[in-house]
Design brief:
The protein is built from ten helices and seven strands. With about 220 residues, the protein is of the alpha/beta class. This is MtnX-like HAD-IB family phosphatase.
Amino acid sequence: MSTRKPVIFCDFDGTITLTDNVVELFKHFRPEGAEEILRRTTTKEMSIREGVETLFALMPSSIKPQLVEFIQGQLQIRSGLQELLDFCRTHNVEFLVTSGGMDFILYPALEPFGIAPSNIYCNNTDFSGTHIHIHSSHPCDEHCESDCGMCKSTVMRQYPQEEYYRIMIGDSITDFAGAAFADLIFARSHLEDECRRLQMPYLPFETFHDVVRQFPVLPD
């Protein structure tokens, strides 16, 4: 491995957690029209930003307590996360959570692991109106035309390749754009399929123990 500083960009839904919490949320509450929006987002007929904003706008802000209760009841953390975080702290590897998910889900779930809020990139959720509104606090820059909402490739470009060895850990369509900028990809599920389709080198994983085990040799 080069002397560039290693930095990890890790997805949340379906990567840090065992399931995609946003998808599970809408499967459970089933607001009218959600299934079609999910389908169109998955097939790329709608951009991720448009799909996410349209989905959440279907639900009244008044049900926030029920949303939180549901998430807390079903959210499960993938095995080995603490081991990976300990490894990163020991070896001075910067660990960022880059997620197309929602702040009201991510922050409570990650708080026990001591990840600084400044290292968590996600969408902001506004419950002040009659219906839920999503703010994309890290939108696409001039180099990305995918209308991602929370744009992972834009975040990654803040860490230039000349200085950083960029490592992506992910599983879904929200990781596709950023994967093109990674020096190393740990992939599962849809991201693994995409890496195979595009013949992009990657390392498979099921737990974060697998990530630690396959991590590149770090310089002294």
